Amino acid sequence: MTEWDVKKLRILRTLRDRGTVTATAEALLMTPSAVSQQLTNLARQLGVELLEPQGRRVRLTDAAHLVLRHAEAVFAQLERADAELTGYLRGEAGEVRVGAFSTAVPALVVPAVRLLRAEGRPGPDVRVREAEAAQAYELLTAGEVDLALSLAAHAPTARDPRFSLFPLLADPLDVALPAGHPLADAPALRLADLAADRWIFGGSGPWSEITTAACEAAGFVPSRPTAPPAGPRSSPWSRRAWASPSSPGWPPVSSAARAW
């Protein structure tokens, strides 16, 4: 197969446009002898004569014009590739694979993509893969996603060199207390204040893990009923501490308690 040298082809194209070896050398910041040598080497590589004398100058042969017709397509493709590569380096092209748990997709991923598109500039294609929060780091390790949204309960240590962690937001947990609870009207309380209470929260999943981890960080393991209720108002379990993700208008446990 014939070897095509793009650098030498550019010199040949410049000679066609400039007309003389001297003008070509000036345009490319080369010496005339270097231009002549490069074109001689290109002719040898392609196996055809590219130049023929015309008085004190040279002109391109028919073979040289044929070569340049095909080379122009190569130059155009390389220019497009260069533009796409520049866009990729600027974050304006390519593909980003995002792993996210189900509630994070509409709450975080979709608004972020819409914001990028609304700015009116090109951006990478975003491919979303729905996965449980606990799977995020497995997918990253396997190279199946480029970034993942997960929960703090599943996060590795900050010293793990395989990952870069970026906190996005804090989602406080609310604690609901029965109206007759001694701390129901307290202006502020700590999780440790509820260490002696029996707790009701999800039996599995990330919120259960987060609640348990928060209580353990406060110095106790939450005591739970043997049979979890269907909801915080279910009798007789409603006279217990109920932990849930924050709802609009509910203050976090660090500032107040919500009473049923």
Automatic annotation (TrEMBL):
Keywords: DNA-binding, Transcription, Transcription regulation. SUPFAM superfamilies: Periplasmic binding protein-like II, Winged helix' DNA-binding domain. InterPro entries: ArsR-like_HTH, LysR_HTH_N, LysR_subst-bd, WH-like_DNA-bd_sf, WH_DNA-bd_sf. GO terms for molecular function: DNA binding; DNA-binding transcription factor activity. GO terms for cellular component: protein-DNA complex. Residues 232-260 have a biased composition (Low complexity). It comes from the Bacteria. Residues 221-260 are annotated as: Disordered. Residues 4-61 form the HTH lysR-type domain. Pfam families: HTH_1, LysR_substrate. Belongs to the LysR transcriptional regulatory family. This is LysR family transcriptional regulator.
